[in-house]
Amino acid sequence: MKTRGSFGSKLFDAVNIGLMIVLIVVMTYPLIYVFSASISDNAMVMSGQVVLWPRSVTLVAYERLLSNPDVWISYWNTIRYTAVHTLLTLIVTSAMAYPLAKKWLPGRKTILLMAAFTLLFSGGMIPTFLIVQNLGLLNTIWAIVLPSLVSTWHLFIMRTFFEALPEELEDAATIDGCSSLQVLIRIVLPLSLPVLVSIGLFTAVNQWNSFFDALIYLNERSMYPLQIMVRNIIIASSNVQGEGNTAYIETLKYAMITIATVPILCVYPFVQKYFVQGAMIGGIKG
Amino acid sequence: MKRSMLKKHKALYLLMLPGILYYIIFKYVPMYGVIIAFQNFSIGRGIMGSKFVGLKHFVDFFVNTPDAWKLIRNTVMLNLYDLLFRFPAPIVLALLFHEIRSKRFKRFVQSVSYMPHFLSTVVIAGIMVTFLSQQTGIVNHMLSWLGFERILFLGKPEWFRTIYISSEIWQTVGWGTILYLAAIAGVDPTLYEAAKIDGANRFQQMRHVTLVGMVPVMIVLFVLTLGHFMETGFQKIILLYNSMTYETADVLNTFVYRRGILSADFSFATAVGLFQAAIGFILVVTANRVVKKYSDTSLW
User: What mean pLDDT is reported for chain B?
Assistant: First the structure.
């Protein structure tokens, strides 16, 4: 759009930039405050003397958290749930999407319909819970990984991506004696890296952030993921060791939020591109 | 013939096997499991051995549960508020983003606004709980500096919907603009030229060209939102509500969670869940039909 230079147009720009600055403040202030509060003196935080910047900097809340074995265990749990979930999801989804991209495969339509049907209908919370319980998965990593293993949207996105790949390459490989599995691993997947990375990141961030499956399927402390720890410390307000110690009762909460969020915020600048890409593919198909 | 087909493509079918098993075990078996809504299900007897009781649990809910009406009202209200306030927010923001002249500033604001999307529900609820705390939260400190009374935000039913919807907007507004911006990018630039020649100022261009270009995406997202109409955000509600705010915060899904998972009242909870899913299904089908009739965009 060319600059018209009229007064109205300039006013429009000024108001817009003003609104955007408000937006930036609203989006970042809570996170800055959380971080400042987490390294400030507890009394200062409780009495409202910390507004933006930290006051009387101290790391006592972090020391407290990091000396708690439960925090480390939950961190490790989240890492392994995320890693296993992402890896299995990519394997199972791509293995299922690849044959579905073959338009000539008998039975393809039926299977696609079977998957699409689940977008409209589901058994709901309780019947799913009963299956997980019946299979004896409660309190295992599989209760977290298996019930949400394949996302139908992701399956369709991947299938669409595979369909667009040139068939000649695969034919050539088949003539050279590659099996279907070899074609998938050696030809198709390397060409599909963008979509694999997008879907892998979506799955990983979702799993890192999820808490509800853990809430209903896990009740052993040693299995809790990070998000459940955060919930217990802040929302259910059960203190980790030392009920009501005034040196860190409030700042502990802010430190816990920070610890749970930092990994996501660290990778965020690098993965944002893939996410936007993924959201677009999903959106266009959806 | 069929057997030879299977043999020929055996490898391909084998590749699909784990995925198909997933769908059967975790999607279709639970769908079959919905029949426990019509039984007096007990874990010991299983689905096969439990007695059928017809619509007993539905009657129990509608006639004998004093909270039934409240739950339905809260579910509908919270979702209406969601449609009314959260749904339009990214549309407005996308329009504003589009009008930013500096490319670098635009990219920066976008990145900042996407960020909350990546925070977990627990973290966002945690931020709300700590910020809104009556004695120690920063929001109440600010209120008291300005001379207002401190408010027990999370203990007052009249505040719950506001708190819930604002946190939803904060989290989703930026990310929600992505699809709208893609739609705007697809608008034919000559339309702007034509509008300018017709003497449209920037505000008029925004209304008659940009906004109109976003309509198909709006329709699709609207129908999709209606598809989740009955289940919106109950994970966040579980984190934010408490018995003091049940009056406005308790929805069908949170009730299903408490009765089904916490009290192990499986059949009754499944019946309530089924009622909720049925309403949701009717809504999305109706919305899609209406949309199809009045425009050329629809979900299916």
Answer: 89
